[in-house]
């Protein structure tokens, strides 16, 4: 009953014009329908969070005149609600996009093996439709499921070319689209499909081998960037912070009359830089540089940012851990001259 209520509410929450696009998007993730109950839960959770933020943070500030209070409440509530929904939906879209990307890459990696079985069945006298069905094996995973849907469409009276084209257009995969476009074109022209499939298989294997060779040739750059970001950068930033702290400590012990000129920059008074602010700066710099480097490594190795998102937590965790570790070690070594050491 609760799930039915959430599903009904979630369906009312989603505009009708948006539902076909959402259905197509969730089909790429492996779902056959839109999770309306999840949207219902999202709305009520966002409402609860908005209420808590409004009561604890906004209401004490804006309470006052009736009309002004009403307008400020309306704008604050709407803004908070939209912000929370946007953030949650954005994160959800990000992770679902990664899931679609992994599904697409899995199908691309198994397409050549599947087409090999299709070619073998065609050479054994099977019709093209029956060859598609007979080649479906559990080890093909997602590809087997998608081809199963294509075969069911064909069995219910749909044209095999249209069914294959719908499958090809469903995913953003140039490899899949080109391979199926060649097969569909040969089917429509009435030629020997098996010859085209064999050529497609050879091209797919060559493409895969070429990508592996390119990844191997760029391994040196990947290792260099990874070592520089995860090991060298934390040491240099830790050294720079300790050096800055030492200079700051020395300058603070000099009389104020001697602090005219450039040395006043590190005085910590007036326009000076506080060591705590500098530490925050180095930490944020490590976060930005590590994330950017992980993206660069992903592009070099995989050719796509989405293929290497998993590197970002690894780079961040390693570089930040080593930074604070070296910071503690160096501060301990120079504890006598670093302020607060």
Explain what the structure shows:
With 341 residues, the chain is mainly alpha-helical. The protein folds into 3 domains: 2-102, no CATH class; 107-210, Receptor-associated Protein (Up-down Bundle), CATH 1.20.81; 218-333, no CATH class. Helices cover 78% and strands 0% of the residues. The protein contains 12 helices and no strands. The chain has helices spanning 2-13, 19-28, 36-62, 66-123, 128-134, 142-155, 160-170, 174-189, 193-217, 219-252, 275-302, 311-333. α4 crosses α9, α7 runs antiparallel to α8 (174-189) and α10 (219-252) packs antiparallel against α11 (275-302). Residues 263-271 have low confidence and may be disordered.
In short:
The protein folds into three domains: 2-102, no CATH class; 107-210, Receptor-associated Protein (Up-down Bundle), CATH 1.20.81; 218-333, no CATH class. Helices cover 78% and strands 0% of the residues. The chain has twelve helices and no strands.
Shape: flat
Number of strands: 0
The profile of the biggest β sheet is: none
User: What is the CA-CA span between the terminal residues?
Assistant: 62 Å
Rg measurement, Å? 30 Å
Unreliable spans: 263-271
Number of helical elements: 12
What keyword list fits this structure?
3 domains, Receptor-associated Protein, 0% strand, 341 residues, mainly alpha
Write the layout of secondary structure elements.
Blueprint: H1 2-13, H2 19-28, H3 36-62, H4 66-123, H5 128-134, H6 142-155, H7 160-170, H8 174-189, H9 193-217, H10 219-252, H11 275-302, H12 311-333
Helix pairs in contact: 1-3, 3-4, 4-5, 4-9, 5-6, 6-7, 7-8, 8-9, 10-11, 10-12, 11-12
């Amino acid at each position: 009953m609760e799930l039915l209520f959430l599903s009904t509410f979630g369906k009312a929450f989603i505009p009708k014009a948006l539902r076909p696009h959402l259905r197509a998007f969730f089909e790429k993730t492996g779902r056959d329908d839109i999770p309306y109950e999840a949207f219902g839960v999202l709305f009520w959770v966002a409402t609860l969070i908005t209420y808590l933020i409004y009561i604890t943070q906004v209401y004490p500030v804006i309470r006052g005149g009736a009309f002004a209070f009403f307008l400020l409440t309306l704008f604050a509530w709407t803004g908070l609600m939209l912000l929370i929904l946007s953030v949650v939906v954005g994160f959800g879209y990000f992770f679902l996009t990664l899931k679609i990307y992994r599904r697409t890459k899995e199908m691309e990696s198994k397409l050549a093996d599947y087409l090999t079985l299709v070619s073998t069945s065609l050479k054994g006298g099977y019709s093209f439709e029956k060859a598609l069905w007979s080649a479906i094996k559990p080890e093909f995973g997602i590809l087997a499921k998608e081809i199963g849907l294509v075969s069911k469409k064909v069995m219910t009276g749909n044209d095999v070319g249209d069914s294959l084209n719908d499958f090809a257009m469903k995913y953003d995969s140039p490899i899949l689209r080109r391979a199926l476009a060649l097969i569909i074109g040969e089917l429509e022209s009435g030629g020997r499909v098996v010859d085209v499939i064999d050529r497609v298989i050879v091209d797919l294997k060559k493409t895969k081998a070429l990508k592996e060779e390119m990844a191997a040739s760029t391994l040196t750059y990947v290792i260099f960037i990874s070592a520089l970001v995860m090991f060298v950068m934390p040491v240099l930033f830790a050294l720079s912070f300790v050096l800055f702290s030492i200079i700051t400590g020395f300058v603070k012990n000099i009389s104020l009359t001697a602090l005219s000129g450039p040395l006043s920059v590190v005085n910590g008074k007036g326009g000076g830089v506080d060591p705590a602010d500098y530490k925050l700066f180095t930490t944020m710099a490590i976060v930005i540089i590590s994330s950017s480097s992980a993206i660069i490594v992903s592009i070099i190795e995989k050719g796509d940012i989405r293929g290497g998102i998993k590197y970002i937590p690894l780079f961040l965790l390693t570089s930040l851990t080593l930074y604070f570790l070296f910071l503690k070690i160096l501060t301990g070594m120079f504890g006598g001259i670093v302020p607060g050491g």
